[in-house]
């Protein structure tokens, strides 16, 4: 392993550790589930992506590079969808928000019986 490769592995590993630490602190310190989801989705995903990059650069073989790229693509696709689904479930179940002064614009888009989301009514 050459010097540039070692520097890149160390940089990606440090970035991964930093983002995972930020995600963990965000989950512990944030007041409600919606903000915790934001912290874990953004920083946690970046932490995992940098870990995959560190592994791929360390191995520096085509199978590892391909697997790392596929895992990164999978994370980019699934993390936002999973976060949205968890936030919707929390909203439907009535999980309270920390900021009670906010205007709830989603309430009119949720059917009260089936808890299905629909498009808002057009403005007249």
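^ structure tokens above, recovered residues below v
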């Amino acid at each position: 392993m050459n010097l540039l490769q070692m520097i890149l592995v160390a940089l990606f590993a440090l970035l991964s550790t930093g983002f995972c630490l930020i995600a963990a602190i965000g989950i512990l310190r944030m007041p409600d589930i919606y903000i915790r989801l934001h912290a874990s989705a953004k920083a946690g995903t970046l932490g995992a992506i940098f870990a995959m990059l560190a592994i791929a650069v360390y191995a520096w073989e085509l199978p590892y590079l391909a697997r790392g790229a596929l895992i990164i693509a999978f994370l980019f696709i699934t993390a936002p969808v999973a976060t949205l689904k968890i936030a919707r479930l929390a909203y439907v179940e009535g999980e309270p928000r920390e900021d009670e002064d906010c205007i709830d614009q989603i309430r009119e888009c949720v059917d009260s019986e089936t808890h299905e989301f629909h498009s808002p009514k057009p403005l007249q």
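Residues 3-99 form one domain.
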